[in-house]
Design goal:
Chain A: It is found in: Cell membrane; Membrane. Chain A: One of its GO terms (cellular component) is plasma membrane. The complex is a heterodimer of chains A (about 325) and B (about 650). Chain A has 2 domains: about 35-85, no CATH class; about 100-330, MetI-like (MetI-like fold, Orthogonal Bundle), CATH 1.10.3720. Chain A has 13 helices and no strands. Chain A has about 325 residues and is an all-alpha fold. The longest helix of chain A has about 40 residues, at about 190-225. Chain B is of the alpha+beta class. In chain B, about 30% of the residues lie in helices and about 15% in strands. A 7-stranded mixed sheet of chain B has the order 10-11-12-1-13-20-14, covered by helices on one side. In chain B, strands 17-16-18-15-19 form a 5-stranded mixed sheet. In chain B, helix 14 runs antiparallel to helix 15 (about 500-520). The chains are: A mainly alpha (about 325), B alpha+beta (about 650). Chains A and B meet through helix 1, helix 2, helix 3, helix 4 and helix 5 of A and helix 2, helix 5, helix 12 and helix 18 of B.
């Protein structure tokens, strides 16, 4: 078999296995935790004026309707069967809405935030990191690196709170939360897009700033190592212009950073889930928090299915791109 | 972005015509169908902007608002006549008739959900007398207060619409969303999916305009039938915004993005831009009781001495000021809602004085006395760990569960735990996530828990006693402590049948004595009605300076938050409190509760032996049957199977991968 295909197959089998295990954990974990979704619905209703007799009736009906009275292994098998046929079930807390529909509504908002924030911070961070390495000892390096170290260690949610406090509450320049003005509904009108962009600034910054710091640090180390290599020395002796050497160094140290993006995606996603809650930004973070809070089993499973699937797929694609760029990996896969 | 709601993708609401609300709905809108078990804020039981009841009791005023009903008459001990307003109309112009009431009742019975569901023991029949007269007949249990509560607060649905849905989908009508074309209105039945697509026909002054995952928008019906009686609500649009956490909601309230809120606000006095009912402490109106429930299924709480010692050891004042920000005063041990005078009359002050040396029945913190009770009962530190053991030498390890994130409750539980440690009990506060909290309460898997009671009704304190003491109830519907005392049940049954207020008082006194002696659960504070507002866009909010209305947390179904909107005016306009919002003798339309109570005591109640009526309850005297028990999702056995399954799969994968790699 050609090494590329072989590599592809091995990676694919790992991908599927990881996916399966992760999704199974997503099935079992919420069910081990005490409490179930039906109890919570009934508890919510019990604060109203419904009679106890009626609430008991509802509770029994709901437990039966969602199959929560079946043994766990039966539920698990059903879940697997449904998952493979693309049926993620219906949400318990969101009144029998198909899980796929809920995710389809929330996922675009998350991706709109996640992808630009990751790509921009990757590009900016790597550029700044390489520059910092290249200009060793200058004030630019000191400032960039120290800011990078500090921001990269800040948790996303804390950055979000600091930004809200400074720019929304104290200065009042931008809205403090949600994805667009509450008087508007999503549409492709200019008014809506303007409102969306204004609301976009803080969530975007809180994610991008923190990730940029990480990229700066990583890149600086890689570029510093690269700067000590023979081709740089050789080029310097040949009096090649600084800009050209910088471009060589940048390009050569970028390779590991490409795989880094796949690893980073998971971290950013995890951070974004909390960030979204702070901004009441209607992406997957809000949906997941709601699902976990209400023990909405089908919804929790569905979200993990999609999130893990997306992340694994992104990793897979990035790794594959890497193989295409760097023949060493392909060759290494043979042995 | 292809998933945008189709029908009304273009919404841009004029801010000055819109009231933004928060705090009543924490998850996306579900259904606006009166026959569904789950409902959305605004439908009926949680707001009443769309479907109105015949009458509504308002606890803070102790008055009834005649809404679709004009008057009522308790003919005899089994029959109630309700006269409907001739001017009442559905939003499509058809009159609201006795037939609508009868049909709603019958259908609701048939499908086991809706306005009449749960009324089985209390209402046996509903009959049309003429177009505008309905007759209700009392149910088997002969419980007049519950009969009246269900009958008077009954919300009819439009028969001419509901009939069409029922013909199409039968009992699956409970899954109808009734979103009037703003969503895919499909009901799944056994024979397949059925599209409904009927207009939304309502009795209230608002109907659904638009909704998505983060908001629900209602639009005012400008030619609403009731405008000559009640006027029209101020805001053209009502938007309930759905937040995940209090923090964003509070931020938006402070910035004026939200006008009306029902959320917990710590130290509200610090925020000048937020208005509350009272200008200074306690800021908010009380709503129900915050209780410390003791799990009576735990053998340790069989000992009354321990329960009593706990009650005496808690420093209530400290908890109220430090944890609850002074939003509440210390409640009476009697579980009578003493802050409202019309409820306070049911407190036996002599008895309270006798037990607690004050007429309010407030327990006075006395740690020395608590220690003394325990010492006399034989509680000793046997093993020298500074904590007491039971008289039989068993270790005592208690914890107080509270939902994590409920910061006021978490502080309260910490304070209570340290108070109890002071008297030698090993108690810690144990915050658990809300789902886990409910799991533990429901399955009696806790020792101590902070919890709540239902809100007082027109027949208070009966409703609160039932919630805390009735052994026939189990959480989450009541009796969180699994208290099981046949004497308490008997008093409750007798009180419901009492013919005169003297007789009623006799039974309430018995219940109060029982509570003082037995300490089945401990009231810690009043839960607070989170009613707060911003005046940036709207004025006329009810408060102590403008008390035209009361109790208007947006989630308080028993005060029908709808009424608040009738008094709102745009900022800059003149404030005009509605003229109808007064008792009848002051020129308004409100019916004083005492009018109903006097009708109640006038009718003769036949003697019924408790054994006959409560034959079902005899079984519960030994062990209350939790109806949910047989249905509890099975966990342990299945979990092990699942875990083994996962391990096997992982092993197969690893072996397979290694083979491939070779």
């Amino acid at each position: 078999m050609r090494p590329l295909y072989r590599y592809f197959l091995i990676k694919l089998s790992f991908l599927l296995a990881t996916y399966f295990v992760a999704v199974s954990i997503a099935f079992f974990l919420p069910r081990i935790a005490p409490g179930n979704p039906v109890q919570q619905i009934i508890a919510g209703l019990s604060q109203g004026s419904l009679s106890p007799e009626l609430l008991d009736q509802y509770q029994r009906r709901l437990i039966e309707e969602f199959g929560l009275n079946k043994p766990l292994h039966v539920q698990y098998l059903e879940f697997l069967k449904n998952a493979f046929s693309g049926n993620l079930g219906t949400s318990i807390s969101s009144f029998r809405q198909p899980v796929t529909k809920l995710i389809a509504w929330h996922l675009p908002w998350t991706l709109l935030l996640l992808i630009p924030a990751t790509l921009v911070s990757w590009a900016v961070g790597n550029y700044l990191g390489a520059r910092a390495a290249y200009r060793r000892g200058t004030l630019f390096e000191k400032i960039t690196v120290s800011t990078g170290i500090i921001t990269s260690q800040i948790p996303y949610y804390w950055m979000a709170m600091v930004l809200i406090f400074a720019f929304a509450i104290k200065l009042g320049w931008v809205p403090s939360g949600s994805a667009y003005d509450p008087t508007l509904a999503p549409s492709f009108s200019w008014e809506f897009i303007k409102s969306y962009l204004r609301h976009y600034i803080l969530p975007f910054l809180s994610i991008a700033l923190v990730s940029t710091g990480g990229w700066i640090i990583g890149m600086r180390v890689l570029a510093t190592m690269e700067l000590g290599s023979t081709y740089v020395n050789f080029s310097e002796r040949l009096n090649v212009s600084n800009e050209i050497i910088f471009r060589y160094v940048l390009r050569n140290s970028l390779l590991p950073q490409v795989t880094g993006i796949a690893i980073q995606l998971g971290t950013v996603m995890a951070g974004q889930i909390i960030t979204e809650q702070i901004f009441n930004y209607q992406g997957m973070g809000i949906l997941l928090a709601r699902a976990l809070g209400t023990r909405d089993y089908p919804l929790i499973q569905g979200i993990f299915l999609i999130l893990i699937g997306t992340l694994l797929l992104a990793n897979f694609i990035v790794e594959f791109i890497y193989v295409l760029i760097d023949p060493r990996i392909r060759l290494g896969a043979r042995e | 972005m292809a998933m945008l709601p189709s029908a009304s993708a273009q919404v841009s609401l004029p801010r000055e015509d819109t009231v933004f609300v928060t705090g009543a709905q924490w998850s996306p809108a579900s259904t606006w169908n009166l026959f569904s078990p789950s409902q959305t804020w605004g439908t009926y039981t949680s707001g009443g902007f769309m479907y109105l009841p015949l009458f509504q009791y308002i606890a803070g005023l102790n008055m009834w608002v005649p809404i679709i009903g004009e008057s009522f008459e308790l003919v005899n001990e089994t029959t109630l006549l309700v006269y409907l307003r001739p001017e009442a109309k559905w939003s499509d112009g058809k009159p609201i008739t006795a037939e609508d009431v009868e049909y709603t009742y019958k259908l609701s019975r048939e499908v086991g959900s809706g306005p009449a569901a749960g009324s089985e023991p209390y209402i046996s029949d509903v009959k049309v007398i003429d177009t505008h007269t309905v007759q209700f007949t009392i149910g088997e249990e002969k419980n007049l207060p519950m009969f009246l509560l269900y009958a008077l607060q009954f919300a009819p649905a439009p028969k001419h619409i509901i009939e069409q849905v029922y013909e199409k989908v039968g009992a699956d009508i409970i899954n109808w969303r009734n979103c009037g074309g703003t969503c895919d209105d499909i009901v799944s039945t056994e024979s397949g999916d059925v599209r409904i697509d009927l207009p939304q026909v309502v009795s209230g002054p608002y109907k659904l305009y638009y909704f998505d995952e983060l908001r629900i928008v209602y639009e005012r019906i400008d030619d609403w039938w009731g405008k000559d009686i009640f006027g029209l609500p101020g805001p053209k649009y009502l938007v309930h915004r759905i937040y995940l956490s209090n923090e964003q909601a509070l931020l938006d309230l402070r910035q004026g993005n939200v006008d009306w809120s029902g959320i917990f606000i710590p130290n509200v006095g610090n925020f000048k831009e937020i208005g509350t009912f009272y200008k200074s402490k306690p800021y908010f109106r009380p709503g129900a009781f915050v209780m410390l429930y003791l799990n009576h299924r735990d053998p340790i709480f069989q000992d009354t001495n321990l329960r009593k010692a706990i009650a005496y050891a808690i420093d209530y004042q400290e908890v109220l000021t430090k944890a609850f920000y002074g939003y509440s005063e210390q409640p009476s041990m009697s579980l009578v809602f003493t802050v409202f005078p019309h409820y306070r009359m049911w407190l036996n002050t002599t008895l309270a004085q006798e037990y607690f040396s004050n007429p309010e029945g407030r327990i006075q913190t006395n740690k020395e006395f608590a220690k003394q009770i325990l010492a006399q009962a034989g509680y000793k530190d046997v093993d020298g760990d500074d904590y007491l053991e039971t008289p039989t030498g068993e270790k005592i390890e208690l914890n107080i569960i509270i939902p994590t994130g409920w910061t006021d409750w978490m502080i309260a539980a910490d304070l209570i735990a340290s108070d109890l440690q002071d008297i030698g009990l090993n108690v810690v506060a144990n915050p658990v996530d809300y789902g886990a909290y409910w799991g533990m309460v429901n399955s009696a898997g806790y020792t101590l828990a902070l919890g709540w009671t239902s809100s007082p009704s027109f027949y208070h304190p009966w409703d609160t006693y039932r919630y805390v003491l009735d052994p026939r109830l189990t959480p989450p519907t009541g009796n969180w402590g699994f208290y099981n005392n046949s004497k308490a049940l008997e008093f409750l049954v007798q009180a419901a049948k009492a013919e005169t207020s003297e007789e009623l008082m006799k039974y309430y006194t018995e219940v109060q004595r029982l509570i003082y002696e037995e300490v089945p659960a401990i009231p810690i504070a009043y839960s607070v009605q989170w009613y707060a507002y911003s005046e940036k866009y709207w004025k006329g909010w009810p408060n102590e300076d403008n008390p035209w209305w009361t109790e208007v947390a947006p989630y308080r179904e028993y005060s029908l938050p709808l009424w608040l909107t009738f008094g709102l005016s745009k900022s800059g306009e003149e404030i005009k409190p509605p003229q109808w919002a007064k008792p009848k003798d002051e020129g308004g339309i409100l019916i004083p509760n005492k009018e109903l109570l006097s009708q109640l005591t006038e009718v003769f109640v036949p003697e019924i032996t408790p054994t006959e009526t409560f034959s079902t309850s005899s079984a519960s005297e030994t062990e209350p049957q939790s109806p949910s028990e047989p249905q509890e999702p099975s966990r342990s056995s299945g979990f092990i199977i699942g875990l083994v399954g996962i391990i096997i799969v992982v092993i197969i994968i690893v072996i397979g991968a290694r083979k491939l790699l070779k």
